[in-house]
Amino acid sequence: MASADKIYIFDTTLRDGEQCPGAAMTQPQKLAVARQLARLGVDIIEAGFPIASRGDFESVREIATTVRGPVICGLARCVHADIDAAGAAVKPAGKKGRIHVFLGTSKIHREFKLGKARKEIVRLAIDGIRRARKFTPNIEFSPEDASRTEIDFLVEVVEAAIRAGATTINLPDTTGYATPEEYGRMFSEVLSLAQGASDVILSTHCHNDLGLAVANSLAAVQAGARQVECTLNGIGERAGNAALEEVVMALRTRSDCYPHVTTGIHSRELVRTSRLVSGACGFPIPRNKAIVGLNAFAHSSGIHQDGILKKRETYEIINPQIVGWGKTELPLTKHSGRAAVASRLKHLGYTLRPAELQAIFSRCKEIGDRKKFIYDDDLVSLVGAHIQNPRETYSLVSLHVHTGTGEKPLAEIALRCAKQNHFAIGTGDGAVDAVMKTIDQITGLQGHLTEYQVRAVTEGKDAVGEVSLSVRFRAKSEAVAGRSAATDVIESSARAYLAAINRWLAESGRASAKKTRRALANP
Ligand code: KIV
Ligand code: ZN
Description:
The mean pLDDT is 89. This protein has an eight-stranded parallel beta barrel, surrounded by eight helices. A three-stranded antiparallel β-sheet has the order 11-12-13. A three-stranded antiparallel β-sheet has the order 14-15-16. It has 18 helices and 16 strands. Helix 2 packs parallel to helix 3. The protein is an alpha/beta fold. The site of 3-methyl-2-oxobutanoic acid has 9 residues, from strand 6 and strand 7.
């Protein structure tokens, strides 16, 4: 029997996934996700787009410095400054560093986005790849919008890219427009028409605008692709990217259809990785999400339950334990010590600095006073909320809200800023509104809430309520996100709102934070 070909799993959660609005992660969160991706067994981590910002550069560099195992990749346009930044960011990974250069090739991209003729596109691609090869021999090239590129031109660009030294050719369905038949055909045609295509790795990169990202990725594998680009929970631009857990489990569960391929993913890490990503980026996992959703293995109909009890396979195509469900960990309680919290966090993929660990430990104690058990999901949410929030200009000292049927809610709040406590009392249309307006009295800011979501992290009446919100502080400025978790959703709302304020002050410059502290210190 011929041995199966390896399918390289290229995870782009930290690049295409993080790029989507509202999914921004902090550097420590990205590092925790990257470490867990290594444990999951992905082959390549696309850690970011180094030219995009100082923060992106730093986090790609930190991941390239500290995460061992997978290849670490940085994205670049076919522009020298981008390529040089990506080269410098992945350098600490040594032989395991990859640069991924991309350039639009479809007619619509050439004419309207780039204003360049075919010849010029080929020249730019060659020039970009040659530049990238000065940093590493491991070069991936993506003709962006490949699935809408004329096949003759696609073949011409791919041949030129291979001659220039690209070792992986990714053919993205950038707009999620292709059908599985079309996408698979494109791979077959490139493999048979482009000289050198069988000597490099062909890669898929599918977006989910028509809900076809996973189906398209599988069609490409059938047609000869040997790398799949995907993200945990399918997060990504617009409707997202192909979900890693779905691609991997489809290949494995239906190995009768894909007998020629195998991945190196440790499937028992899937659920844990999915939760870590969800906690880090603040995107809840839909209950009905395949493989990792809470309902993915919940059987509610009596007929199904009866069948499952008689023989699991009657209604279950995957053993839930294989993807990491069902392993009950002992939950923490208020009696758990710092070492127990640190060990659970480590198990969940987080290595925190002592000050961060102390902060999470204190929050666990506070929550443990009100809630019997602190589950892994509670911890992920606490860490997500804590390390997403930058240095605090304001912190919550106390909060009292009086409300009742037919009464206007009244909030009494004390905040700490510049080593002093500041008190205010205010009202609002609802309890949350009263809290935010009262906080505004102290800070002198006026936040306009553009998004507000609350979710129970675990089950039960004492569940931790996680609040995610976005606030705009000036008419034309971008909304700032804030997140927090507490057993009381009003407290959680206040903390999330403060997190957004602290972030706004941090992002709009230290000067304004200093000015605020000075003003409050000398009223
Ligand atoms: O969707 C896309 O085309 C991309 C490229 C950068 C590969 O994300
Ligand atoms: Zn993409």
